[in-house]
Amino acid sequence: NRRLLLDRLNHALVMSARTNKRGALLFLDLDHFKMLNDTLGHDMGDLLLKQVAERLLACVRDSDTVARLGGDEFVVMLEDLSEDHAKAAAQVEKIGTQITASLNRPYQLDAYEYHSTPSIGIAMFGDHGKSHEELLKHADIAMYQAKKAGRNAVRLFDFQMQEVLNERTSNK
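Request: output the structure for the sequence above.
Response:
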C-alpha cells in the first residue's frame, strides 16, 4: 500500500508541475483507536478499519487515492485541484469536512455501535520542489496539530508549524 501510494504521489507531483494544478495529501489518524483494540479486541479494530476505508472511498473521486499506511493511519491523495491556491484549499477543506462528517457517523461492529473520530492533517502541493517525503512529513505535522487541538479536527499545514517544531528541537 505504501509503495503504491508513493508511486502515485511521485506521478502526481510530476503532473502537477506539468499542468500547474494543485493537489493535497490528507493524513488521517483515528482518535482513540488503541482503546478500541484494547477493550473490544483486534477483530473489532479490523472491522472498523474496513468500514473507515469504505467511507473514505465514498468521499473522494475515482481518480483520487486512498491508502492505509498501517495501524489506524490513512492517507488520501487528491489530484487535479484548482491552479489557484485559495480555491484549491477551499476544495480540500470541503472534502476534509465531508470525510470528517462521514467518519463521525456511528459504526456497527457486530453487536456494538461504536463512535470514532478522525484527526486530519493536510499538506498542499503544486508549488513545485517538494518531495513526497516532505509532503508526508508536513501532513503528519498538521495531523498532530489536529490532535493537539482536541482531536476530531482538520488542520492545514503551514510553515509556522514547522518553524515552531524546529525551534523546539533546536532548544533541546
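The mean pLDDT is 91.
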